[in-house]
Amino acid sequence: MRNQSSVTAFVLVGFSEYPHLQAPLFLMFLTIYTVTLLGNLGIILVRKINPKLHTPMYFFLSHLSFLDICYSSVFTPKLLEILVVEDRIISFRGCMTQYFFGCACVITEMFMLAVMAYDRFVAVCNPLIYTVSMSPKLCALLVAGTYMWGGLCSLTITYSLVQLSYCEPNVINHFGCEYSAVLSVSCSDLSFTQMVCFIISIVCEASSLLIILASYVFIVVTIVRIPSKGGLQKALSTCTSHLTAISIFHGIILLLYCVPSSKSSWLLVKVATVLYTVLVPMLNPLIYSLRNKDVKDTVRKLITSKLHSQAI
Length: 312
Prior knowledge:
By secondary structure, the protein is mainly alpha-helical. It is built from 10 helices and 3 strands.
């Protein structure tokens, strides 16, 4: 039994139990990470270029893309590293830093999706006063609030992890410093840190889902009352992409942390973590861009102008 002062690093198992899959997994994750960076940077660039996209919805979407870039970059580079090197070590400080930023991004994205649901509620239910209600100042305050709340919650949980003692062997059966994986190598009483994490998780998940649910209840009631078919389709189109992103994100989070069977299998925990740390950040720009005419038109114009300039 040794305390955290003697455990200065952890060994990440990753997917080393499947040596024949190391190269294919590296290529797959590298491709996904590249698409994630290009897709999310593309969303941010497209919004900046097209004046028609200087609206609250795309303001929030650009921050969602920024969060996806940050979130993916917290875990994926280390995952790629341990797939190609024999030395799968991460320092204690590096582990806690990785957990802090990963947790902060998850909680911030959770509330960013809730803010976007509120934005859709105002757009569908009060379209005539939408630009007044969702003023630039309010949008900035909502975004700043999500970042501050995510950072505060993450700092609290990370501090509770730092206070624990950790034992030899210091082997983490994961590709990163995921919460349950870090706890598995601790030799302290876990009741306090588990209580802290449980309270914060319940408050964040319940409050964000409540905001989303309440927003969409009002949206559905408003949509049902729309007499014209064209108005109905327009209202639905503004919400479909957002609902898809919410379903994927919260579905995977609930699978990982709320389904008891997921904790009995480290492989399932790792796969679920891959889904929301690697795959979800890639899917968000695809979900929003493929269903949005303005985004597709801007991308098409950019490609056309690029090809035209090269031809000249």
